[in-house]
Amino acid sequence: MALRFIAIDPGTDEDHSPTIWLEEETGDLIIQSYKADAATLEEVERVGSVPGHATDVPAHETVIRLPARMRPFIPGVEEAPTS
């Protein structure tokens, strides 16, 4: 696996370091960030995604919270206004 560093949260400190890497062979983004809290997970499951698709988060997946200030570092993502 060949990872290329993309960005670290510009507002990071020594103990927190949301980071984005690109896996060069597959183009996958590898993201380190904050674990979503219970309220966020509950809302994710309530809102869901596409009709007919399970809304629970499978054990082999997780939900993370990436700081809004890191959106510009995600390739192909247009800067969206914050609410």
Considering the chains and any ligands shown, give keywords for the structure.
83 residues; alpha+beta; 2 domains; 3-stranded antiparallel sheet; two-stranded antiparallel ribbon; 1 helix; 12% helix; 23% strand; globular
Compressed to H and E, one letter per element, the order equals EEEEHE
* Major sheet: 3 strands, antiparallel
Average the pLDDT over all residues and give the rounded result: 86
Instruction: Tell me the total number of β-strands.
Output: 5
Structural class label: alpha+beta
Description:
This protein is α+β, with helices and mostly antiparallel strands. It folds into 2 domains: 1-32, no CATH class; 34-67, no CATH class. It has one helix at residues 38-47; strands spanning 3-8, 19-23, 29-32, 34-35, 64-65. The longest helix has 10 residues, at 38-47. It is globular, with a radius of gyration of 15 Å. The model has no long low-confidence stretch (mean pLDDT 86).
State the gist of this model.
The protein has one helix at about 40-45; strands at about 5-10, 20-25, 30, 35, 65. It is α+β, with helices and mostly antiparallel strands and about 80 residues long.
